[in-house]
Amino acid sequence: MAGYAAAAPTAPGSAEPDGKRCVVDPTDDVRTVDSLMRHCTTEQILALFDEAPVGAAPTGTKKISLLPLFQVSGKHLSYPLAQQMTLTQGRLGDTLTFTTRQGRPWVYKDYITGRDAGGPLVESVSRIDQKPVYAADFSRDFHGVELSLHEYRQLTPGVWIGRDIGGGDKPTSTPTGGAIALS
Q1: Where are the residues of the annotated region Disordered (predicted)?
Q2: Domain locations in the chain?
Q3: Reported pTM
């Protein structure tokens, strides 16, 4: 995706962008994430996740940006509603920390109230498209209930695109959850 015109960002609650300014810039993480947050359409975000290679696993502390996309049983919420939901959720915490625990890769969600229980980061296949991903199961945060499974792929050298879908281990064509960018 190319082309990035200087323009006012899409305001919360506004109509879905036209996608003409959706850009992935391998040399500019801020520009890429801003584009995902404000200029890419729902379909473009889904296509970028689908087309991204698994790449390298994220490491260290990464800023998490919740993208304006949310599905319930595979159906898309309206762009303004998804945008408002993700802005609200984003206030609860804005980083993930990728580290090790007992010698294996681990990821924690960093909330405004502190760090969660986290979960193992594993090489896996996406429940959505059965292609390679790095996955993290955050069921420890919910007393073992599988509510949040992250799937990550490397979009650029410094940005990962991911899906946060309901838990489980079976393929699904009707996911419930959103999309994220890590940088």
Answers
A1: 1-23
A2: 29-182
A3: 0.88
Report which residue type is found at 70: F
Element (H, E) at 107: strand 104-111
Q: Using one digit for the tens of pLDDT, what is the confidence trace for 133-155?
A: 999 998 877 766 677 899 999 99
Contact 109, 96 (CB under 8 A): yes
Q: Determine the Cα–Cα distance for residues 136 and 151; give it in Å rounded to an integer.
A: 7
Give the pair of three-digit tokens for residue 11.
């305001």
State which amino acid sits at residue 171: P
Task: Let me know: does 77 contact 70? Beta carbons within 8 Å.
Answer: yes
**Environment class of 39 (CB within 10 Å of its CB; exposed 0-12, middle 13-18, buried 19+):** buried
DSSP 171: -
User: Amino acid letter at 80?
Assistant: P
